[in-house]
Each structure stands twice: as C-alpha cells, then as structure tokens.
C-alpha cells in the first residue's frame, strides 16, 4: 500500500462525525453501579449486554448475540470474605480490610464457615507435622503444580490453610483475580506483603466462601455485508471486550473504566459513524463487543471457533485500553498482518499519531492462535483490576485518538 500524504476528503468527512461526548457518555453508562462491575454471569453484566444490543440496534444495523458456555470458570464470593487476627483471650484484635489488606487467592479451596488456628511459618526442614491445626505462612507463592503438591502435603499433615504474600498497587489495592484455577487442597488467602509477617505466631480466624461459576458468556455483534465476492469470506472484525471483574460482594465497586469500558465506547461510536456512511463496503464488517476476556479471552475464542466452522478467514483489529494518553499508541502485530500494519501506519501518519510496538494481552491473540491476521491496539489504561479504575481516569482526547486511528485504518481496509 503506497504512502499517501493527503487525507482523502471522504475520510475527512467521516472523521468529522466522531464525537468524544458520545464516547464519554457510553463510558459513563458502562461504569454505572447498576451494571455491578460487568462480571460475566451476573445480572449487572446482563444489563450491560442489553445496553450494547439496544445501542447498536439504534444505529440501524443487524445485531445479534453469540452465547457460549465458559470453559474456565469465574471466581465468585458467596458471602463476604473475612480475615481476623485474634488476641490470646479469644477476642478480635484486628479485622483485615478486604482488597486493601487481604484478598482471595484464585486457587483457594472454599471454606464458607468460620475456622481458626495459629499461624506458623512453613518449616525449612520439611518436617510438616508441626503444621497440624495451623495456618501455614509462605514467603513466596509456588507456581503451578508446585502449589498443588505443597497444599496436598500440608493437608495430609493437618494444616488448615495457607497465607501467601501479595503486593499492593501504588493506590494501596490488591489486584482482583477472577479466573478460577484448579482448587488446591486448602483454603488460601493472599495477604498484603508487608502485613503478612506480622501474623506469624498469632491466631487468625477466617471465612473463605468461594465458588467457581461455569457461567454463560455473550458476545454482541453488529454485522454489515460487503460487495466484492473475493472478500465474502474475509470480514474485517473490529473488537473490544466489555466484561470486567465485577463488584465485591457487599464491598467495593469496580467500574472497569479504562479496562475496558472506554474502548467499548470507542467501538460504539465507530459503529454509529460507519452506519451513517452510505458507500458500499468492499468486504464484510463485524463490530463485536467481546465477553469473558477477563477469564481467559473466552469470548474471542468462541467467535474464532464460529468463524472457522463457517470457513471464514477474517482480518482483526482489537482495542484494549482507550482511556489514557501516553507517548504513542501501542501496537501488537502478529504474523501475516502486513496489510493491517500498513493501513495503521498510513492512518498514523495522516493523523499525526505515533505508533510503537507493545505487549497487549487481549482478544486479538485468540485470532492469532487460530492463524488469522490480527493486531492489538492500546492507547492507554491505568489502575486496572482495582476499584481505582474509574471514570475520572478517562481522557476525551485519548478516546478521540483511538477512534480516529481506527477509523482511518478501517476506511482503507473497507473502501
């Protein structure tokens, strides 16, 4: 694709239709407490799904949903998590604050009733009999099967739970994790790393009422056909995930503003503008709000499976993070993405938007793993997976940059 110095007049007219106020309003709506943090499988998430469907339908395009069963469960609390430090006489010395001082571990066994025991450091000599009836404090978290093995051994020797370190963010939060791993043999709590040593030799009481939910996910798609037969089975897919981590039961609200409500707002504004352009498309277009990204990019995997079954070979652009201005837009390219990268580069030069290669762990990787050309984009996000990821972090200029860069790229691919 040869470089063109002047922005085509048709594209200039389309860019003029973009409105950051629309994008800020969509972001605000998606972050509202009524959507309860948009965790897959919740009623708040279902309300967010309906909002996306109704908004896209208002643009006059064909909208459908793709429901799928989660293959990996999402972690959920059935009651508030509890961790208390006890005095020698059995009264409560300290109640630890959920999400700032301790939190659930994604591989913990569930223990919904109160249970209590003294805390001992994991014996260096490997003699585990001293752990009977006690919480075992670890100074580091074993990974993978090592944690499974250690928990099983400690359970055999009568230990009642594990206490593991977790470092806080600059805002003082412990990041939330909802992708449930295979449960180990004991309850596991993550304690802020600087507080964990203070528990050694004391007694603690806890409640760990966790459940791994096999929820239903729901992608939301707006589709438009193309005119050229050679592209009939090669649609352009533009995506952003709308699910987030969900609010803490009886606790903190997780707006998920920069991860990833702002990007979904950009997606909705692009859908609105594209619906106003009457020029026929060369290839089909699929605008998709992905679900279940936060539990292992399961929504994009579901769409990839459907497209493969239909014999389709899509091109894909994915936006994860469209809220915070940085020095340049991050781009994660994949194999066979030269045409997409050339279009992005041209759009960046037209619009004076610098691009750099960056690491973006998001839905485009499901397409890449299936052998489809896909590129991930991120303008920027902040304080993700914490309650601090809120609307006040979202910058209208970042939304504008994301929307103009994508529209400039899409225009080249479709027209």
From TrEMBL:
The protein, known as: Peptidase M28 domain-containing protein
- Provide the coiled-coil residue spans: none
Q: Domain of life of the organism in this record?
A: Bacteria
Query: What species does this protein belong to?
Result: Ktedonobacter robiniae
InterPro entries in UniProt: M28_fam, Peptidase_M28
UniProt-listed Pfam families:
Peptidase_M28 (PF04389)
All residue ranges annotated as the Peptidase M28 domain in the record: 219-407
């Amino acid at each position: 694709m040869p470089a063109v110095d002047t922005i085509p007049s048709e594209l200039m007219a389309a860019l003029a239709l973009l409105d950051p106020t629309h994008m800020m309003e969509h972001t605000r709506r998606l972050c509202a407490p009524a959507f309860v943090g948009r965790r897959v499988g919740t009623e708040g998430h279902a309300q967010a799904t309906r909002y996306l469907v109704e908004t896209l339908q208002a643009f006059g395009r064909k909208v459908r949903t793709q429901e799928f069963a989660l293959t990996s469960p999402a972690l959920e609390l059935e009651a508030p998590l509890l961790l208390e430090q006890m005095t020698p006489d059995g009264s409560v010395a300290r109640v630890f604050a959920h999400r700032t001082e301790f939190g659930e571990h994604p591989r913990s066994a569930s223990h919904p009733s109160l249970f209590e025991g003294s805390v001992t450091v994991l014996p260096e000599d490997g003699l585990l009999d001293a752990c009977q009836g006690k919480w075992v404090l670890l100074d580091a978290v074993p990974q993978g099967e090592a944690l499974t093995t250690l928990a099983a051994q400690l359970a055999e020797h009568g230990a009642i739970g594990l206490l593991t370190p977790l470092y806080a963010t600059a805002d003082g939060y412990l990041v939330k994790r909802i992708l449930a791993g295979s449960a180990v043999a004991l309850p596991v709590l993550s304690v802020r790393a600087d507080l964990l040593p203070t528990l050694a030799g004391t007694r603690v009481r806890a409640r760990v009422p966790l459940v791994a939910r096999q929820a239903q996910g729901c992608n939301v798609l707006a589709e438009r056909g193309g005119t050229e037969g050679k592209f009939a089975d090669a649609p352009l897919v533009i995506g952003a995930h709308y699910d987030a981590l969900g609010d803490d039961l009886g606790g903190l609200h997780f707006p998920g503003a920069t991860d990833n409500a702002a990007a979904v707002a950009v997606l909705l504004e692009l859908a609105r503008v594209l619906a106003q352009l009457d020029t026929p498309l060369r290839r089909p277009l699929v605008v998709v709000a992905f679900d279940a990204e936060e539990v292992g990019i399961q929504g994009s995997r579901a769409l990839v499976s459907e497209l493969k079954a239909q014999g389709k070979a899509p091109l894909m652009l994915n936006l994860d993070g469209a809220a915070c201005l940085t020095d340049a837009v991050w781009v994660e390219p994949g194999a066979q993405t030269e045409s997409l990268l050339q279009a992005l580069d041209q759009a960046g030069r037209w619009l004076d938007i610098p691009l750099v290669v960056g690491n973006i762990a998001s839905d485009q990787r499901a397409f890449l793993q299936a052998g489809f050309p896909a590129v991930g984009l991120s303008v920027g996000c902040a304080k993700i997976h914490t309650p601090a990821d809120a609307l006040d972090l979202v910058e209208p200029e970042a939304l504008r940059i994301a929307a103009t860069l994508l529209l400039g790229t899409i225009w080249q691919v479709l027209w």
